[in-house]
Amino acid sequence: MREALKKDIKELVVAEVKSTMTGLMTDFSTTTDFLTSEQTDIKNKIAERDSKIEELESESIRVQRELTSLNNRLSAVEKISRDHNVEIQGVPESRSENLLGIFKSLCTAVSTPIADNDIRGFRRVAKIDPTSDRPRNIIITLSSPRLRDLLLSAVHRYNKSNAKDMLSSRHLGITVDSRRVYVVEHISPESKQIHAASRKFARDNSYKYVWVKYGQVFLRKDDNSNAVRVKSCDYLKSLV
Fold first, then answer.
1. Domain that holds residue 35
2. Among residues 26, 60, 81, which one ends one of the domains?
3. pLDDT tens-digit profile of 49-99?
4. What's the CA gap between 137 and 53, in Å, rounded?
5. What is the pTM of this model?
6. Long-range Cβ contacts of 75-80 (<8 Å, 24+ apart)
7. Pair 176, 92 in one domain
């Protein structure tokens, strides 16, 4: 009888263990299936987001290219519109000033007369730095880039020949607050930033020459060095 009881208990235990194991395996299988399903969903969502990111990156590259193209076109248009202009810096301001008369005096001073019908416009322009005490620059629009270059060359020759008495407001008939006057190309704000950075770079690194030609900024270390076109402010770092 004891043997029969032991056998029954053993069978009950085995049956219970099997039942428990079966339940655990079923639960494990269900859990595994759930995790697999969740993992698949996560992978699908990641793949979908990766695809969207790639689309956005492609769109960003396309927009950036279009923006660069538009900026290049705008720069070209600005350059063409400025090719007829000269910029006169350092002329003291007066409420009763006659800008046309001032410009004609400048032309006389450098022995380069320009006919009235070749002068298309003249105006003062706003300062880049409103807090500066420097007078506003004068923009003169001429009938052709050739006349602009002719005048710029004449000013350069005059200053070279009169190193001790370079062009000043006194030569323009302004005797009060006489100061040095500069006649330069009318370049874009971006080129002005490059020019200013290049002048500072030249002072800090013993470069002898800095100049602007056809809207481009150039540097030269000394008389025996080649000219270098400064493409951007960051480009100066490569010259150190």
1. 1-81
2. 81
3. 888 888 888 888 998 888 888 887 887 777 777 889 999 999 999 889 999
4. 49
5. 0.66
6. 75/188, 75/190, 78/188, 79/188, 79/215
7. yes
